[in-house]
């Protein structure tokens, strides 16, 4: 006679099916409502419930509206929350979503929102609580006839952590309306554009590993505290998360960046911005480093503003491979024996012949480490006077690096209180042949620089257009008149106190005579000048103005 089964085994032997758990008796419709309610606690809750059993998994996967409410907080790591957000976007299919953030750190706002920003047209509402309370109802925000809503511009203010709340309160106080002073605001003055700008205040730029690629086209980054300096490596790493940028502006501080040995062991990446058309650098000592790490094959406009300083700072690129200083220096940027020396008529010779200190080895702590130099890093052989020799060196080398790497179709160059060495101007004029507009303010450029824009007789080469008139030289060779920047149409000189009036008149008059004469004959080799401004250049007086006006007519502006 067999012994009775233990109580633990009786359900397995019982032919009658076991009684189902109460949750298994619930209809699918009620389960969906429960799961939707659970989503109010955290976005990951429905995902977790879907792992309990096969039935619940099927319910979660077949019910996209469970994921319409996305609630995120700081309970998990940013990397995990980012993946949760992406999962909610995918599971909700194409339904509208409500984004609800509860965070105490302003630094977490952009990383947590980044997965949703490319799907802005699906947003129904946005709620923010924690460090600030904000609510946006997007259903009354969009105007359907004006296309899909999208984020056009991102403004980032980077401030000291100790000042972040007070600065944010000031910005909130000056805002005019809930939307304008919050995270989102209209990109234009009219709400009917369906384009938004996003404003964030952070204590540091987020690392790209915490960001879903950001698809906006305009980016403004500003250092908002005198006590905080954005490290150029952090800036460049952040830019890797912005692959569709068309406009980028960086407004920094004139403070020297400190590099630790560890920083130099991990150089920033080359940032490829295939759509960037306009770049602005304002008030930064890191111009060379930034420009040396950008790849911008479509760059049309470059604006360099307030880069001049009259004090020493390290001008080299510290991320280059370093070598002993006794090693041979690289050749400069030409195949001639004296590539960086620009010759000009003797009456244009600068009266200044300063023996400037070497720009390469500044007396700062980390310059004691040997480092690599680049083509053109040697001191300017012309020895032209400059009030800002160190920033001139850094700016010139940054431009060389950017143009050499990207070969952009640059059309506009504005240098507002930004300057270069004579050798850098010469290199620029030889390598940016498509430049049409050149504006420079407060430059110490010498007469030899403006003389580079005048016509020069050079031996005819195969690449010269056949239409160019030929002059037979006494040496038996054939010569043509060549212009640097052959497509230059607009030249603006403001506060260039070292330029003599005679040099300005001579160079521009001769250039206008050549380009106008060829154009009248139907030879479209050089673009005629269209707009010339000479404003507050102290050595350009009324007599020079009359003489130049005779050559240019109404194309000349004196204010």
Keywords:
559 residues; alpha/beta; twelve-stranded mixed β-sheet; four-stranded mixed β-sheet; 16 helices; elongated; F-box-like_dom_sf; F-box_dom; F-box domain-containing protein; LRR_dom_sf
SSE blueprint and pairings:
Blueprint: H1 10-13, H2 22-25, H3 28-38, H4 44-49, H5 54-61, E1 69-73, H6 78-91, E2 97-103, H7 109-117, E3 123-130, E4 134-137, E5 150-158, H8 164-174, E6 184-186, E7 195-202, E8 218-223, H9 232-239, E9 247-251, H10 261-265, E10 271-272, E11 278-282, H11 287-291, E12 294-295, E13 301-305, H12 389-406, E14 412-416, H13 422-431, E15 437-441, H14 447-451, E16 456-459, E17 471-472, E18 478-482, E19 490-494, H15 501-520, E20 531-535, H16 542-552, E21 556-557
Parallel strand pairs: 1-2, 2-3, 5-7, 5-8, 8-9, 9-11, 10-12, 11-13, 13-14, 14-15, 15-19, 19-20, 20-21
Antiparallel strand pairs: 3-4, 6-7, 16-18, 17-18
């Amino acid at each position: 006679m067999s012994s009775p089964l233990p109580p633990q085994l009786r359900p397995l032997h019982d032919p009658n099916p076991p009684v189902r758990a109460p949750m298994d008796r619930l209809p699918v419709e009620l389960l969906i409502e429960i799961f939707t309610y659970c989503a109010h606690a955290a976005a990951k809750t429905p995902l977790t419930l879907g792992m309990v059993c096969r039935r619940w998994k099927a319910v979660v996967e077949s019910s996209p509206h469970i994921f319409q409410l996305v609630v995120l907080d700081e309970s998990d790591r940013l990397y995990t929350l980012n993946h949760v957000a992406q999962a909610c976007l995918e599971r909700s299919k194409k339904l509208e979503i409500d984004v609800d953030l509860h965070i105490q750190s302003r630094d977490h706002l952009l990383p947590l929102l980044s997965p949703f920003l490319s799907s802005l047209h699906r947003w129904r509402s946005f709620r923010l609580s924690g460090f600030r309370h904000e609510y946006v109802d997007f259903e009354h925000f969009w105007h359907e006839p004006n296309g899909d809503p999208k984020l056009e511009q991102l403004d980032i203010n980077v401030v000291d952590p100790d000042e972040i709340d007070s600065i944010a309160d000031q910005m909130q106080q000056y805002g005019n309306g809930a939307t304008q002073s919050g995270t989102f605001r209209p990109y234009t003055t009219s709400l009917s554009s369906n384009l938004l700008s996003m404003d964030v205040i952070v204590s540091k730029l987020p690392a790209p590993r915490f960001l879903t690629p950001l698809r906006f086209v305009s980016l403004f980054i500003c250092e908002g505290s005198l006590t905080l300096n954005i490290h150029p490596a952090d800036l460049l790493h952040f830019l890797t998360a912005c692959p569709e940028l068309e406009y980028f502006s960086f407004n920094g501080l004139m403070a020297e960046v400190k590099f630790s040995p560890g920083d130099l062991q991990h150089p920033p990446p080359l940032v490829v911005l295939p759509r960037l058309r306009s770049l602005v650098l304002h008030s930064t000592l890191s111009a060379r480093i930034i420009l040396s790490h950008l790849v911008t094959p479509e760059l049309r406009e470059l604006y360099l503003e307030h880069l001049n300083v009259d004090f020493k700072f390290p001008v080299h690129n510290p991320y280059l491979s370093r070598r002993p200083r006794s090693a041979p220096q690289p050749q400069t940027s030409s195949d001639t024996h004296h590539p960086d020396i620009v010759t000009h008529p003797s009456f244009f010779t600068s009266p200044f012949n300063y023996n400037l200190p070497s720009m390469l080895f500044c007396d700062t702590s980390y310059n004691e480490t040997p480092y690599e130099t680049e083509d053109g890093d040697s001191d300017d052989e012309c020895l032209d006077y400059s009030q800002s020799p160190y920033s001139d060196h850094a700016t010139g080398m940054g431009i060389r690096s950017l143009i050499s790497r990207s070969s952009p179709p640059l059309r506009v160059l504005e240098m507002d209180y930004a300057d270069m060495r004579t050798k850098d101007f010469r290199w620029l004029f030889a390598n940016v042949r498509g430049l049409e507009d050149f504006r420079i303010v407060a430059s110490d450029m010498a007469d030899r620089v403006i003389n580079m824009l005048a016509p020069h007789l050079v031996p005819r080469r195969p690449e010269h257009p056949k239409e160019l008139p030929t002059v037979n030289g006494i040496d038996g060779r054939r010569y043509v008149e060549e212009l640097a920047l052959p497509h230059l149409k607009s030249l603006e000189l403001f506060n260039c106190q070292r330029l003599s009036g005679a040099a300005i008149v001579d160079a521009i008059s001769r250039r206008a005579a050549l380009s106008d004469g060829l154009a009248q004959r139907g030879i479209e080799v050089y673009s005629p000048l269209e707009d010339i401004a000479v404003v507050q250049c102290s050595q350009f007086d009324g007599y020079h103005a009359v003489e130049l006006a005779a050559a240019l007519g109404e194309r000349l502006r004196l204010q």
